[in-house]
Amino acid sequence: MLSRPRGAGRLFDRVNRLVVTRPSNLQSLQNWHFSQFSAVSTRSVPATDSSDRVPLRKQLKQEAKALKTQKRQRKENEEASRQIWELTVGVEIHAQLDTTAKLFSRAATSTSHHPNSNVALFDLAFPGSQPEFQPATLLPALRAAISLNCDIKPVSRFDRKHYFYQDQPSGYQITQYYEPFARNGYVDLYDYDGIAREDGERVRVGIKQVQLEQDTAKSQEYPPSTQLLDFNRVSHPLIEVITMPQIHTPATAAACVRKLQAILQACGAVTTGMELGGLRADVNVSIRRRGDPAGEHHYDGITGLGQRTEIKNLSSFKAVEDAIIAEKNRQIAILESGGVVEGETRGWTIGSTETRRLRGKEGAVDYRYMPDPDIPPLVIGEDLIASLRDTLSTSPDQLVIQLTGPEYGLPIEDAKPLIELDDGARLEYYQDVVDSLALLHPEEKDDTAGTARARMAGNWVLHELGGLLTKADRAWDPEIVPARSLADLLDHLQRKLITGPTAKQVLAAVFEGDRRPIPQLLEEDNLLLRPLSREEYLALAQAAMAENPQMVEQIRNKNQLGKLGWFVGQMMRTGEKGRVEAPKAEQILRELILG
Amino acid sequence: MPLLREAERCLANQHANKLNSFITPLPRVGQWLDRVKEADKRKEQGSAKSSIDGRLISIKDNICTRDLPTTCASGILDKFTSPFNATVVEQLEKAGGVIAGKTNLDEFGMGSHSVHSRFGPVKNPRRDHSGEELSAGGSSGGSAVAVAADQCYASLGTDTGGSVRLPAAYTGTVGFKPSYGLISRWGVVAYANSLDTVGILGKNISSVRDIFSILNQHDSRDPTNISPFSRSRILSHLQETPLSSRLASKPLRIGVPLEYNLSELSPSVRRAWLLSLASLQQQGHTIHPVSLPTTKHALSAYYVLAPAEASSNLAKYDGVRYGTRGDGPDGTGQTDGYLYANTRGTGFGPEVQRRILLGTFSLSADAMDNYFIQAQRVRRLVQRDFDNVFAASNPLSDSKNSVCSDSSSVDVIVCPTAPSSPPRLSGLLNGSAKYSPLDAYVGDVFTVPASLAGLPAISVPVTVDTDSNADVDGLAGIQVVGQYGDDELVMNVGELLAGRRLA
Question: Pfam families under this entry (chain B) (predicted)?
Fold first, then answer.
């Protein structure tokens, strides 16, 4: 249920504008480090102001150490409290469906159009206007429900959820409260999804239901007294996914939200993730002392739980985890001091350390759910479900299995980011590179060579190209380095027609905008490897040996083979740039020194 | 009579009578004059668009018109003009009908006497024996009076629990509420969506029938409108024997619901009912007692369900996107307060506020099960009551038997439209203890069951001799109710009684 009476919606929008705009886990990880660091350095400001100046390097070292200690301490505290208290979390996700149709009007959906340009009479709740269900919106919703392993109900219904707020033109939101279209699904979370270590290799979290509902208008606040409303977003179709309260660690809750987002994106149900505001999460949190008699509360059929609170409008994975930790610790503190946890709705501000109370039980909104008398039941045929099931794209978990399997041979550390980066665009690009590489070797029988190329391509797409993107602070675009160019480059590298350093140099050039075909570029800039003759290698080796006869003796007599490397390096330095190949140089040295 | 002369006479009546039947009357000059003249030409040439080509048809002011304001008789919409025409308005204009202004009503259709209007009460042209002004009935009182006072040829109203039939009975006109879902509600301002039905008011059955045939079309913009497939299914079902032979070749079986013989029934109404039945019997039809046991709960169920839907439907009126905002700063002054408390507090009249509060209560978490859910169950039972007594099966229900074999089943039900003749306006307006809001609700006791079941029902005027009892003028409304889809039969049976002087 998307509920943001009184300001919650505004908060949500404001937060969105602040978050990074690049949907990348690596990015958010970096941001996280950054914010931790700055928090510590703020605290140490007085030290730098004092008369005895600490050298910067020393200061940084001390701060890093303090941070480490702090982290370890916090981890130990968390573990200690986990031994005593059991945490239970359920997650609710609202996601904007990827569809051009609004849920109940003929206006188009839009996220970037001019405000109030895509608005039908019903979106504005004009007197006499009526809803007109748009069947196209059902397709992404069904893909989501299928991907979340739900039972799809042949008949479901729409209800009105009433509350007054200026972003809600009709005074109610149309949702599916009594009879949602999908129930009883699950999502599997694996260790590689980032679940807490104590959760082992896999956790299965039940999906209670998935329901279709309308989004509200977007409001923009101009303090002290002006609100601008954009009704383009009204009736944009949303799905709400409600999990069972079956999560017991903050990290796993964050992993669950991340995984849900990945699944929804992979099946084409949603376009944008949390970073762009296309998805938001609420969590409900309760604790109970381990070993105590069962608590008296039960939610969604799970009994024996403690009183739960709800935290609304979390807009990043990090916020999910942090808010749960903070709320859990708040509840523990209350119970340990003999208090009672109140059932209430709380909020979370990014960067804060405590959840804050939004409204208590007495202030709870009575939504007066009523079946919508204008909207007929939604009847979904088995044939539609079957055909969607058949055409559904591969799930993230299947992708992980494929990418880490014999065909691609990627390490899990590379497979995960490839799948998750740039809403799947990076994976698509990677696939293009691999396909182009395969086309360059049509006759090949040897599978292992293909695997080696696929692994190399993974490394270059993710780390070399990724590094250039990060350094230049550019958003992902498959056209910066066309897949075909990268494939050509890697082909040259693999066939030893260029050296590794040359390949990196060329990649940088293409990244900067050099649009010559790779073979032409290599030719014109004279970058192709012209192998040295045996004679040239011998001459280089002998010159190097003459420079350091003692070391030659040490290798020969004491078998200190490690010192061969020095000679190899020497040959690379003295030889013509880009022409000396290290393995060949070593081979010649061995011949000369060891005989 | 040429159409132009007829129209001019209606116009003169609109501006002469002080019955307050119009919120927006037809202007003395305007495009409509040309349209009537063109229709006159077509009539002469024998190429009239339809039987209503060039006729003035007034529209209840809760039906949207692009060219005239649509106020719903509410302060919150008192200056509102809709950006679009309701489907029914489009259909009438396409058939050559001329919109003859917007008629007064109870605010948003909530009332039984057309006194709850921001624009003042509607007056019935009829007076009682001491010359006192009478209620026109509601909520479509303006439409009924406009027809009764020759201010238009016919009128569209809306009927949620009797709002077309009751004013028809009080003003001596014909008021027809078709089966739910046959006439488009697109552009009809919702009061209680699951009950709201566009109804037709006219001087006689044939004008009502003509207009119904124009409006009885599928409209995809109204999600509750019956689909073309269901329409043809229902039609072919009715065209089969034995249903097709009713009235045509076989006398009718007419049901008289025993539960409707209330002790509160006024003597003149009871007399009109008995004489109507006698008249039908004289015309060769047979009279049979039937039982509709849930009727006694129907009124309570209606006054739970309709306000519940109303409280939801009227949540949209906040003065933010359209409509009238309250004076001065809105909100309650508290930082946490709502933005439009003041606007809604001053914009809605007391009856609308009463029903919003009622509905808000009956939908609240603690009351839902005891009120809203219970009332929905009663609604099902009311529907089942009717299905049990009608020979024709309900084409929308699950049971498959096409014709009820029960020998006690009937073709139509005939009963009074209202339990008494129209009350005096003065009593209603002075808020005297004699008429509480509940008394007004009781006036709907005979009309609400057909609304809950979505059945076609018509109120036709009959006159009984009043030599013994000079209560009023002897006019009373008699109601004919039929099975879902039996709209033609209901109108035909109404025709057997409409306008009759009975003794």
Answer: Amidase
